[in-house]
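job 3f2a | input accepted
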Amino acid sequence: MQTLAHWDGGPGPWILFFPLIWAAVVLGVVTVLRRTVWRGRRGPWRAVADAAPSGDSPIAMLGRRFASGEIDEDEYWRRLSVLDEQFGRTTGKGGAA
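job 3f2a | predicted structure (97 res):
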């Protein structure tokens, strides 16, 4: 029985390096593209960063109005449910004390 350790005219153990070489090439190309060409564009890796409400978003403004006492809790949750449907917020409803 021949194994890869005994090279008798076959490909030998070096054939195991070809998948590793291709993986390194693909990883290198993706890394270069992410750092240069795709830098200014929105990519799938930025979806997590966009999930949090920014300072000018309607959800953040609603939270500020609730925190300052302009609206009560019932009004806050009613408006937040409408904004969740419209803007598709991905985080759960946490308590805003």
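job 3f2a | The CA atoms of residues 61 and 67 lie 10 Å apart.
job 3f2a | closed
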